[in-house]
Amino acid sequence: MEEYIGGLWDKLITRVAYQGYPDARVELAQMKNIAATFFRALGGDPGLNLQSGSATTHGARRSWLERIAGIGEKAELTWADETTLHLPAFIDYFPERELNRELYLWLLALVAHDVDPEASYLQRNQAATLALLSAFPSLQERYHRLVEASLLRRPDPSELKKQEAENELLLRQALLQPGSVHTELKKVGRKEFNFVPVPLWLNTPPKNAINNTKPASKLTPEQAQGSAVQSDTEQRKRMAERTDMPDNPSPFMLLFRAESLFSWAEYVKVNRPLDEDDNPDAQRAANDFDVMSVANDGKSTASRVRFDLDLPAEADDDLLLADGILYPEWHYKKQQLQEKHARIQMLLARDAKAIALPEHLRATAKRLRQQFQSLTPERQRLRAQLSGDDIDIDACVRFSAERRGANSGHAVASPGLYLDNRQQSRDMACLLLADLSMSTDTWVNNQARVIDVIRDSLYLLCEALSATRDRFALYGFSSVRRDNVRFHLLKGFDEKYSDQIRGRLAEIKPGFYTRMGAAIRHASAILQQQKNARRLLLILTDGKPNDLDQYEGRYGIEDTRVAIHAARQLGLIPFCVTIDEKAEEYLLHLFGAKGYIVVKDAAELPQLLPRLYAQLTQA
């Protein structure tokens, strides 16, 4: 009965006391176009996701102080973790819409200057405020407007109990004079602080956001890990029943989208250990992942099912052209390059047979060849040259007329009187790097998979470029951890496009993962060796960088970004073509505003890719 009455009282207080201003509400979605840009412009971490946050609670039930102050059940506060900045989905705290909008911008700027995130609530936010105002003094006026408006919404200390009033006075002083409060807030009772959170400040993550996961079965994480006396086989089986899946994808940046790993109709969700795990058995668990036991009755079984991610036997695999080509990899947490960290394996299709161009592409290929012939360098006839192969009659007539009509005593400079025939210059080399990971095995429509669309695109691009004198090469890549980055030779710069090359393209197949940073570094090394004036690195993919080990999420994104930056420093022109519908949310961070294009309809890629190449290579 007491809980029932308490619940009714909660609802009554929330309805009566919540003092938001719906007419002045500003939603996060309305700030989408400027939020990310503003955050990064003020020095914010460019790899941090921006996302709608969750309400921060102090205990199971919100205090009446929060409700009276206008921070009710529906209100959200701002907090950040290692990868994500959680902002309120809307702000209606102030009666003026402009103030609510300024509060969004202030919070973005404050996170960018969160100099001591491990400090207490009071000290952390004072330090961040001082750092921000010191870096951008022009924000002083905006800050004081927000503070004045915020103080009007806070509870009157004279109406509070002693300890609550003391906390409120400390908060007010910290707002008015950041850095002047060196004491800490006081607890009311044994367990909980009792104070109204400051909407202008950063808060600690909610307890339910620290482990924001959902178990795939009825087993708890503790049960899934098993007791110390359980056998190794039983532990591995239980670990296979766990999963860690993120909720509420970011409206600004795409969360990790796992590659397809299925080799049968039903799939097993797996909690994958990382290379940097504190668990001493993490490496063994990662190695054992390739072969897993599966049992439906909860008992051990002798049968084992091999995943598609397993490497094929040597006799069935592609020919190994080179092994042990080592490249560094960027560790974003340590902010340093790990030397000789990723290993490239150069591969060539073992049984590729020479074939003709597929019938369904021939009409399109013929049209593209005709169009791309206009890009072929031609001899150009230049007039009025100082030297040349022939006399420019028109220039001679004009010069003679000008000399006769000139006043006496004024010499007429001798112009160019010759015609010269010169070859136009189009000094271009292009390396296309295609993503061949398992995600390309998904279906675009009822007729074709992503890998089929990629193959047709490569066919047509080769047909188009063969009509020009541009030098080009094709490679594909996938990976299984850092020591096995598979780099497939489809066409080298020194090879002529032929039926044999078409046979290699016919043999490409999806598999494994997307360690994009290592692949870009090796492609850059190959392209750098070309002596052409312009060198284009064209990357064709359908998703984010990822792999079995720690190369997921932020780690893979940051390593790929560093690899792209290194390619630009070599004088190359990296450009990404993707069919990932949400790629714009992370490709801007990787390639910049003009360094990528998103193809909304994957089926159109074969026709769009040659046209895109023509636009990118126009002088």
Automatic annotation (TrEMBL):
Which residue range or ranges hold the VWFA domain? 427-612
Listed Basic and acidic residues bias regions:
233-245
SUPFAM superfamilies named in the record: vWA-like
Skewed-composition ranges (Polar residues):
212-232
Q: Where is this region: Disordered?
A: 212-248
InterPro entries annotated for this entry?
Answer: NorD/CobT (IPR051928), VWF_A (IPR002035), vWFA_dom_sf (IPR036465)
| Pfam families referenced in this protein's UniProt entry, alphabetically | VWA (PF00092)
Question: What is the recorded name of this protein?
Answer: Nitric oxide reductase activation protein NorD
